[in-house]
Amino acid sequence: MRVTWITDDDAPAMVDYGTASGQYPFSATGTTADYSYLMYHSGNIHDAVVGPLKPSTTYYYRCSSDPSREFSFRTPPSGLPFTFVIAGDLGQTEWTNSTLQHIAAADYDMLLLPGDLSYADLDQPRWDSYGRLVEPLASARPWMVTEGNHEVEKIPLLERHPFKAYNARWRMPYDAGASPSGSNLYYSFDAAGGAVHVIMLGSYTDYDAGTAQHTWLQGDLAGVDRGKTPFVVALVHAPWYNSNKAHQGEGDGMRDAMEALLYGARVDAVFAGHVHAYERFARVYGDKEDQCGPVYVTIGDGGNREGLAEKYIEPQPKTSVFREASFGHGRLQVVNVTHALWTWHRNDDDEPVVADQTWITSLAPNPACKK
What we know:
Blueprint: E1 2-7, E2 14-18, E3 26-29, E4 31-33, E5 36-37, E6 40-41, E7 44-49, E8 58-63, E9 71-74, E10 82-86, H1 94-104, E11 110-113, H2 125-138, E12 143-145, H3 164-169, E13 187-191, E14 196-200, H4 212-222, E15 231-235, H5 252-264, E16 269-272, E17 278-285, E18 288-289, E19 295-299, E20 320-324, E21 328-334, E22 339-347, E23 352-361
Parallel strand pairs: 10-11, 11-12, 14-15, 15-16, 16-19
Antiparallel strand pairs: 1-7, 2-3, 2-8, 4-7, 5-6, 8-9, 10-21, 13-14, 17-18, 17-19, 17-20, 21-22, 22-23
Helix pairs in contact: 4-5
């Protein structure tokens, strides 16, 4: 597990940890960095990888040997069942607070975020306030993220390097595992002891054939043994299928470049953000229903400050099964090697309400979908 934290003052990049509160027999030392953006200068950004760790175990830890603050996290299980929370376009509004409270109200093993985290939009202190907002959840479970358009933060002549804050603050395991990507903007990892392979794609870095991301994705998919890994899911930011009037066509170029790769590998589901609403499609390939294609879900309704995208194209396409412009979050419960239960929870005042639910079956054993 990688722990990342920020201090205003100089402090050791050290995490002390153990399985009992107040007792830290183990420690790990990492690295410290910082960054400047226009007139802003970040605090000291520390990160350290702790482990080896036991699965399904609560660890108590403190950062930089600070005795005043103890955190705890639970490691994911080493097999099934396994529960992912998926929430995109979070931001830091009252709706965000509601979403985070609803997520925390029910247990889960890992959170996946398909881009648009802080909505700092060049105002760097908003990255700090976002960190404080999500800390209660992000310090207790693994949060795996990929970038959205609001992470780019590039200013011609003044800030020429995109993703400066995102890459400095949200370091993902792109250089680890069996398929290192070499870029923090796209990567993959295994969960549930290898029963689920998760691919985090980058909508805002090159993706056409011959690019580094495209070549990496080919190799990553080729390395998945579906006999041992019954479920493969992918996350992008800009949706490849979308019947909302917002952001029409913005994911088409990436879909043209990569859809055949995911289809050929029998990826089970693709989750996207960007559009501030919820929509679930049937299994689709080439803009048509295809029982060997992925289920496509747009879940960019975490609570951003830009509001909801309430206008849909009419009539509703046959491939679009359910759509609603409400804030909320989703849960993917991989129950066993053949079935996963997808549930979308709408934010109502005091509690999340189940508004859409479906079973997703693994394509791996489907004889009609053998390569």
